[in-house]
Design brief:
Layout lengths: L1 H6 L13 E2 L9 E4 L3 E3 L9 E8 L2 E7 L5 E8 L1 E7 L5 E5 L2 E7 L5 E5 L2 E6 L9 E13 L5 E11 H5 L1
Antiparallel strand pairs: 1-2, 2-5, 3-4, 4-7, 5-6, 6-9, 7-8, 9-10, 10-12, 11-12, 12-13
């Protein structure tokens, strides 16, 4: 879920589609590639219509910058290009979202995670979330998002917001 946000986010998602696979660390300072898979959401879950999300341009990398005493990640940094292609499944209409940039994920001991994204992030909010209306959004120019252990999103700060569902309606 944390990687969807980035994709979703350099993002979401913030929460952004399908959990990525991560390659083994190499000699590039601990940066490893992240791969985002496509996602499809049924009508009413994210948008009023079925929504498909794909990532034709990917180059995101992540590195664990700090760990907790048990060795699990505390702070993970992300960077790189990521373009999302959103499709209204019913009409075939498409729009692109630029999710490229940098971001930091803090994995807190209580199970919450905190995303600080000064650039762009895609955020997927499902129906029934108590803190934000459902939808697919691209936040640009900076955002801070908290995600509960049950994957509920709390948008603490956002600047420019693109409503992908509205653009595809």
């Amino acid at each position: 879920m944390r990687n969807r946000i980035l994709g979703v986010a350099v993002g979401a998602g913030l929460l952004v589609a399908g959990l990525p696979g991560v390659a083994a660390a190499d000699s590039s300072g601990g940066w490893t590639p992240v791969t985002y898979g496509p996602a499809e959401y049924k009508a009413g879950d994210v948008c009023s219509f079925g929504l498909r999300e794909e990532f034709p341009t990917q180059g995101v990398e992540e590195r664990v910058a700090e760990t907790k005493p048990d060795g699990t990640p505390l702070r993970t940094d992300f960077r790189g290009p990521l373009i999302a292609l959103y499709t209204n499944v019913a009409t075939g209409k498409q729009v692109e979202g630029d999710l490229s940039g940098v971001g930091t994920l803090w994995s807190l001991p209580d199970g919450w995670s905190l995303w600080n994204i000064p650039d762009n992030v895609g955020v997927t909010i499902h129906a029934g979330e108590p803190y934000h209306a459902k939808g697919e959004f691209v936040f640009s120019g900076g955002s801070v998002i908290a995600i509960s252990p049950t994957h509920q999103h709390v948008i603490l700060h956002q600047t420019t917001v693109t409503d992908v569902c509205a653009e595809l309606s």
